[in-house]
Amino acid sequence: MPESVKLEAEKAGIQVFETPSLASVIAKTDVLYVTRVQQERFTDAAEYERVKNAYVVNNELLAGAKEHCIVMHPLPRNAELDPGVDVSLFFSLYF
Q: What confidence tens digit (pLDDT) does each residue in 14-35 have?
């Protein structure tokens, strides 16, 4: 996250916490906003390849989430949001 965004959040009294492990914080997460790593923003193809699958949201990860954790994604998606979560998320919202 850009430093300017973190500073604005902190000025508004919002706690900012960064971690390299999504699994370590999923149990405390109310809203999870996921987006793809955007290849077009990289000037180094090797760097993109290194980080493109750094965070993957799948049913295994979500098994450790709060019962009413909200997962948001702007689409289109790549490998960061496993299609298998679609059914799980739908059923948890509507049934």
A: 888 788 888 999 999 998 888 8
Asked if residues 64 and 50 have their Cβ atoms less than 8 Å apart, the reply is: no
- Three-class SS of 7-45: HHHHHCCCCCCCCCCHHHCHHHCCEEECCCCCHHHCCCH
Checking 12-17 for CB contacts under 8 A at 24+ apart, the result is none
> In 3-state terms, what secondary structure has residue 79?
coil
pLDDT digits (tens, 9 = 90+) for 53-66: 888 999 999 999 99
Kindly list the domain boundaries of the chain, sorted by start residue.
22-94
Measured at the alpha carbon of residue 73, what is the angle toward residues 1 and 2, in degrees to the nearest 5? 10
Name the 3-class secondary structure at 57: strand
CATH number of 22-94: 3.40.50.1370
What pTM was computed for the model? 0.73
